[in-house]
Every structure is written in structure tokens, then in C-alpha cells.
Amino acid sequence: MHLSATSHSRRTAALATTGLLVTALVLTGCSSSSGGSAGAGSTGGSRITLTVGDFGTFGYKEAGLFAAYSALHPNITIKEDTTTAEADYWTALQTHLAAGGGLDDVQALEVGRIALATSDALNGSFEDLAKAPGVNKDDYLAWKWQQATTADGRTIGLGTDVGPMAICYRQDLFQAAGLPSDPAQVAALWAGDWSKYVQVGQEFQAKAPKGTYFMDSATGLFNAVVSSSAQQYYKGGTLDYKNSPSVKSAWDLAMQADAAGTSQGLKEFDTPWQTAFSQSTFATTVCPSWQQANIQKYSGPANSGKWNIAQAPAVGNWGGSFLAVPSTGKHKAEAEALVAWLTAPEQQAKVFQAVGNIPSNQKAYSLPGLVDFKNPYIGPNAATGQLFSTAAGTIKAAETGPHAGDLQNDFSNGILLVEQNHKSASDAWAATVQQIDSSIQ
Question: Parallel, antiparallel, or unpaired for β 282-288 and 165-170?
């Protein structure tokens, strides 16, 4: 998505408002829909404005889709309400729901929040989009569709994108450190094992150009290892991160990367991280498909063609979002029609070409300009379309749990205690466990 995936911002008042949120959703009355044909987006000729609340870079504006939809529906104007960091967006969304007002006609939901959005407590907060005209369940990746489906069979969000992972790397820095720069050869260095990725980092650091690091952040490594595992933070519906093999492995590898000096220790998505792209101070970043937009935006024109992309050590999904329609909306039929159109294969393919977000609508994979697409900024021969669409088709379903986004943030903050505050690994782990156990039940 976009910066998409759960950002690593510190938890704010979001969890504290959860109880109020559930109560408010039960008590808040629903305003009536404006009616009209969902397929036509009609309001009987009257002009309306549909607001779309999202975070990061969903790519609709960049791909010209809002303007295109308004051209098809002259009575509809679309306004995008964007927040940079997903954690800030989620806090505001919960606040608006609790207050019973201030909601957008369409609200984006990040995959780390989807289990909470589909929970029994919040069931009824969003419309069942499986019933929206033009929506076909079989068009979407099965595991993606299931993530947004409640226990009673309502699908409250349509998938926008998924986050199949790769590794984006600087060819010039690899060459300067004596490493291969061809994507197939680079992928072979760490194939099948994230620990090999850490080892390659040590090889790079031994001959690295002055002032450069192998990776941007050990938090990215941690999230990649967990995201490519079948068991993550939950098991059988129960929070079980302390016994999760992937969490233990991810933490240990992040600590190894820090101890070896291969990580620059940046907080992903913050200003220093953004600046480091243009300053060329790190050679690799874990690269879900949405990361391409960040690389191009922050590396700038001067670094065009210096990046390339290789298969990750293991297939996994990091990030991806959904579009939902609040049940209290004033223009629900029109909002549903817009969501169905934005998540149709043709529009998702255009978003991919504009910002790199891989579609969750698998019919898009067969469209010209997707599988054969090569990102000219990443490199003239970087087969990004083929790499990401192939990876997306092989992702296995994994249990996320209602607080996956918060857990990801907490572990990222715990790793930053080591990377930036120079705490010991054991002290940082203890602080992370204390934070999680005190805030997540």
C-alpha cells in the first residue's frame, strides 16, 4: 500500500479508546443512505462529494483514478483524506467511530487491523461488500478475501493490494563491496534463509564504502522474518508471541544484525529514514511491493537506475489494505460502487504501474502491463511485475490476530531501544514484553 503496511509508530491512545469504540458502535444510530444505483453511482442528479480516508500512498491520485471516476460520474466529486502514518490514521478512525461522527464515506483498513475490524465486537460497523454490485469473491486472492470476512460470513472490506516481499538493493554499493549485482546472483546469496541475508550483510560491511550500512533497519528484518512465517503472533486465536518460533528467530536475527554493525538503525518512515535514501547510506531494504514508491520518492532523480530488486529469502506478505464502507455513511450505495470500481482488476493494474502496489484482485495479473511491467526507476531490466505477482500467488495464509499491528509496532520500538538507545538485547526484550502485556489482553 503504500507506506502501507503497518507503520512503526509508537502506540498512542488507540487501545485506550477500544472499549468506548465498541460501545459507541452499538449506540450510534445509522443515517440513511442517499439511495440511487450503486452501479451507476447515481444520486438522482444531485451533486455529492465522496470522501476517502486512507494513509500513506494508495496510488489512486497518482494513477488518475479519482479524476477518471468523476469523469464517468459527473455528479460525484472525490476528496482524499490522507494521513502519512497508519498508526495515526488508526487512532483517528477509532476516535471518529467512538464519537459517532467525522467518518469518511470510504475508510481504508490495514491488514494488521483487519482481524479487529472483523471481530464480533465490531461486527456491523461496516457494510457487507460481498453484496455490492459487480463484486465477485473469486476475483480476489482467497486468503486476502478471507481476512476481511467475519465469522458470520460478512465481507467488510475489499482488498486493495498485498505486500509480497523482495529485497531492493543498490547495485553500485554491492559492486563497491565486491558482491554480485545481478538479481539472480544476488537472490542466490540468501535463498531460503533469512540468516543468510544477515551473513551477506557482514560480508558487505567488511568492504563497504565508507559511511554505508548493509540495511536500513533491523526492524525491517524483524518484520520480514515474522511476515514470511505461518505462525506469527497468535495461535488458535490466542496471543502466543512468547512461544512463536518466528518471533524468536526474528528477534535473534535483528540483534545479530545490530551487533555486527550492518544496520543503520533507522526508524522506518521517519524523516531520517527518508533522508538516508537520497544520501545513499544503506545498500538494502526489505521491499514489499509498496516499498517501490518510497524508494523512488525519497531516493530522488539522482539515484534513478542505481537500485535493483531480488527475490527475498522466503515468500511472505508484509502489508496490504482494504477499503470499507462505514455503516453510518450518508452515501453508502455510492461509496460501495466506488470501492468496487477502485478494486476492479483494471484499476488495480493502473495503481501498480503508478506506485508499485501489487493487486489483491488476481484477475489483474493477466492484464498487459502488469506481469511484464518493469519499473524504470528501479532499473531498466528490473522485472518487478513478474517478481511480485509470482510471489503474491504463492503466499500462504497466516493468522494475524486482532492486535497484529500493535504488536508489530511494539517489537519495532523494542528493537529501536537497542539500535538507537543502546539498550542490551535482554533489557529491550523485557521492556517490549512489559509493554505488550500491559496493553494487550
Answer: antiparallel
